[in-house]
Amino acid sequence: xxxxxxxxxxxxxxxxxxxxxxxxxxxxxxxxxxxxxxxxxxxxxxxxxxxxxxxxxxxxxxxxxxxxxxxxxxxxxxxxxxxxxxxxxxxxxxxxxxxxxxxxxxxxxxxxxxxxxxxxxxxxxxxxxxxxxxxxxxxxxxxxxxxxxxxxxxxxxxxxxxxxxxxxxxxxxxxxxxxxxxxxxxxxxxxxxxxxxxxxxxxxxxxxxxxxxxxxxxxxxxxxxxxxxxxxxxxxxxxxxxxxxxxxxxxxxxxxxxxxxxxxxxxxxxxxxxxxxxxxxxxxxxxxxxxxxxxxxxxxxxxxxxxxxxxxxxxxxxxxxxxxxxxxxxxxxxxxxxxx
Amino acid sequence: xxxxxxxxxxxxxxxxxxxxxxxxxxxxxxxxxxxxxxxxxxxxxxxxxxxxxxxxxxxxxxxxxxxxxxxxxxxxxxxxxxxxxxxxxxxxxxxxxxxxxxxxxxxxxxxxxxxxxxxxxxxxxxxxxxxxxxxxxxxxxxxxxxxxxxxxxxxxxxxxxxxxxxxxxxxxxxxxxxxxxxxxxxxxxxxxxxxxxxxxxxxxxxxxxxxxxxxxxxxxxxxxxxxxxxxxxxxxxxxxxxxxxxxxxxxxxxxxxxxxxxxxxxxxxxxxxxxxxxxxxxxxxxxxxxxxxxxxxxxxxxxxxxxxxxxxxxxxxxxxxxxxxxxxxxxxxxxxxxxx
Amino acid sequence: xxxxxxxxxxxxxxxxxxxxxxxxxxxxxxxxxxxxxxxxxxxxxxxxxxxxxxxxxxxxxxxxxxxxxxxxxxxxxxxxxxxxxxxxxxxxxxxxxxxxxxxxxxxxxxxxxxxxxxxxxxxxxxxxxxxxxxxxxxxxxxxxxxxxxxxxxxxxxxxxxxxxxxxxxxxxxxxxxxxxxxxxxxxxxxxxxxxxxxxxxxxxxxxxxxxxxxxxxxxxxxxxxxxxxxxxxxxxxxxxxxxxxxxxxxxxxxxxxxxxxxxxxxxxxxxxxxxxxxxxxxxxxxxxxxxxxxxxxxxxxxxxxxxxxxxxxxxxxxxxxxxxxxxxxxxxxxxxxxxx
Amino acid sequence: xxxxxxxxxxxxxxxxxxxxxxxxxxxxxxxxxxxxxxxxxxxxxxxxxxxxxxxxxxxxxxxxxxxxxxxxxxxxxxxxxxxxxxxxxxxxxxxxxxxxxxxxxxxxxxxxxxxxxxxxxxxxxxxxxxxxxxxxxxxxxxxxxxxxxxxxxxxxxxxxxxxxxxxxxxxxxxxxxxxxxxxxxxxxxxxxxxxxxxxxxxxxxxxxxxxxxxxxxxxxxxxxxxxxxxxxxxxxxxxxxxxxxxxxxxxxxxxxxxxxxxxxxxxxxxxxxxxxxxxxxxxxxxxxxxxxxxxxxxxxxxxxxxxxxxxxxxxxxxxxxxxxxxxxxxxxxxxxxxxx
Lengths: 340, 340, 340, 340
Fold this sequence. Notes:
4 copies of one chain form a homotetramer. By secondary structure, chain A is α+β, with helices and mostly antiparallel strands. Helix content of chain A is 28%, strand content 19%. The first copy, chain A, has a 5-stranded antiparallel β-sheet. The longest helix of chain A is centred in the C-terminal third of the chain and has 24 residues, at 314-337. Chain A is globular. Chains in contact: A-B, A-C, A-D, B-C, B-D, C-D. Chains B and C meet through β1 and β4 of B and β1 and β4 of C. β10 of chain C pairs antiparallel with β10 of chain D.
């Protein structure tokens, strides 16, 4: 068994940096630090098509990642039970059949395919000057104040982010978040978190009016990630409390915007200013604490996670948010290019 | 000139309740109360195809709404200026040409087509037992506590909602919101708001795994509405602060869920429980207060709205949120039906 | 009632030549010559969006053509009868309801929308140097030998084609075809025909490998036209009888192809040589001769056309073939441009 | 390296008959008889997802077929030359890069993925009573007269077809075709052919009006197969020479159609009668005879095939025609089911 994907429409002649791609993949990988699940997933990507002598050929890029130890593992304990707040129940009802091994297709493991495809998209966009950066800005109620959202540059260095096991670039907040996650883990519980993302140097004009607005597609992309329960652009839910005179981005006498509360889009179309948004992740459903649930026959039973699960998913979800952003941006970049 | 749309794939043989549709449309209409813009838009829908003797024929339903007084109106003051936080700038840059009359296609007037199409979808879903209800739960910092989100029924009566000019079913909160809007208007300013929406009796199994999850499509639909800056499902951004043991929905000994923090979907697929979410609207960009901006040549200038604009958009956006929900649900309903 | 369409994705800033568009539309119009139906259709196009001060704005181009006399006409004779070889039966079974007025949506009248949209696409392509020309090369068993298919130019002048009521540029063959159509009409019958089409100066690289090959999309476009029963590219069914050594297009010592049996595509992608193909139209189903049929209750009855129908559809279908070609080409042109 | 595909939207809970699938695949395989190329391709399908314990799960069915000996083979002779009537030239120009190994993605080898996916679709449709049968009815100018096209049953037995190396069910014609192919091969040349296909017991109502007519999608599917240059439904190009009174399908007094010249669709929608069509294949481009061509620098050179290629492709293309038919039919079957 394997997981994989097909990335169609990728421009031809682009030289892939495989080392960088593997680095990107490693951020999602289990077992990367003491803070995340110690489950082993090797995540060795095999490209089956679309790349020739290190360059993309313009034809679909197919790739697979084998589940090395899936066969040997025992998933029979999942067979007859619906784990609370998992997709076991809905898959069973929708399809009348369920591949119970490791959660099957509803497993967060599917995000590895997003990171491969998005990693390639990100490399292409970077070559065009478009950069994106995600990081953890909240775990539980510990929220890091963000700085320089309105500036046309990435706010933090890669080193700052990677220096933190939580992937929070402010080391003080990172330390508090780490403590909270470790305590939560000790309690056999889990905790939610938020990932912030900023995209800079986006050309003016990306996004389609009405239904396929740029924030609409970014929102769909984020809400398609497991455990995501919300997204807000710019001031987001905070904008609700603001007046128009305060929220509007006016121009100074040199024609430069004095603020970027619009968060980089107007009417759904990029305006050249940075795009930034926050994504809310609920606490991981699988916990070590025993919980009440039902089996496939509807009988009451209890279930408890085996202990190798993440107590907080956001540190490992950072590359997923970047990957999905890159996939959306590259689509719009190419669409807009069709008219250039 | 006119606005309109084509609704393709609507089931045949369905009898349209035109009176109900007009009622639905009237909720979005300007000039409906002293609280909203007094601009006149007649919103008379003309159906051009897809309906025969009052029933849908299964072929595309095309409709137009004429802009009765568009020609006579003078929009030349918009011609050479980029209104702050409007799409004037991005449309001009994306297309190199801009229909400046009333904001053209980026005007909130395009939402009338959403309400027509969504109104038809809503009627069809209602005949299948699926109901949805949106209302205002926040204006500025005044937020109405919501009740009974987890219950499998609509929380408020239509009468409660329509009794409020703000479309907030709690009359105490409604009064406070109304006062805030009126004061904001007096100041020549605008204010943001939130719309809550609940969908009940959704069959189990709607939504597609991975990219086209039900919340992902609902999120895209909401973020495609003008002025929307965020969406959250269930506890949303509040879930970030919760523990898994608290957020998980466990089952009681009768096999019934004891809570619905999942807000009606698991793994992106409806689980039969109510779906509920909140949508954040930024304050309206057009305000009477004078603001600094630039003209199309990049020269500094000032601009001020003419006073017929909404000080708060959410009361009129309630049917839009319902309409977009209905369109998403009907798509998934038909897709799932293909496999029944 | 009206017919119309929406053309989405058309490039912005393009100046429409409305006179040329009306000329193009007039070729499809009934009543244009003694050879075709004398039914009156005014075909006055009204553009509702997407065009501003004569130029495209980049947003969807919506247009309608009113059926001026549809209401006054009496279609009740069609209500309870299934006309042989018409879509009455299949529409009734598929949708359970049928708009019997003039054949409703299965009426050949829907092709007017194709001609409007395709006419715009054709103008845009012409500005890029891509030209297309369709003409009648067969009526019944009278087939005009084609010349210069392999040459990189249009084969006939517009004047030659329009000098013929049949739209066959060889006047000898045209005369014979005209006589055959007139005799067929006198007999209360109808006759089939073929339309040839050639597209020149197509850039290399249009078309997508595997499923969305350029000939595949052109074939789909042609087979979507009412009454079309076949399409062949290049030698087509004649190629079946050829050897590879004869059919292959070799290169001369200057690197130029010595033939164009491939008809302008290799592996589904344009190679810069002319694309040419033939489209087979069955005889019109509505004839004056009385025919056996059944009514909606399944009872035997007879039916006879009222005499205002075309005895041969191909002269009026010439602009439809060009229009559909233009729509396919413009799509691929823009897709390819995304990667330039 | 590998070839493969993803079949999304396949209904869940369907038990795959892998033995039958392998049998179906073996019909496309090289080396199956002395008449076709002796190249070895093992075509061992590995399913990576979407099937669990022998049944489909409703999630995407991903599969790959490894190219066992691709690495060891030497394709460097293809590197710098454009084979006449191959896609080498167009791929190079479109993408600026070309995977020259075995023709890369433009290789007819890609059809194996179509046969796998189509084979699964065919099994599902068969369980619903919908059957399809393709066979060779023409090689060069030898054309077998077809019988019983209008009857609601498959015309030949599987045994009749498989008894012929050419897959022509009439043994006299088969023998003549075989001789022609063998002689052509001896001459180092290739020859074209036609495949006929009939689909029976199609429910009434499949196909969408206007652009996505059933014959339009079938036509696109066929024209997407390598080497196909034409398709005709029913009488096809022969219908051009017929009168309406002759071509129309009238009903007898019992309400049954007396003929099926419409070939199973009216207005693009299936009418319950058999669908039948013919597909024209040009002669294979790769021949042993030396031909003039150019290299990538545009210099004149010559090229000659290595002798392991098919002299006539149609015997091996029979399952491809069935597979593509099945994929189109299953799509429309599910779409129509959405409205049932």
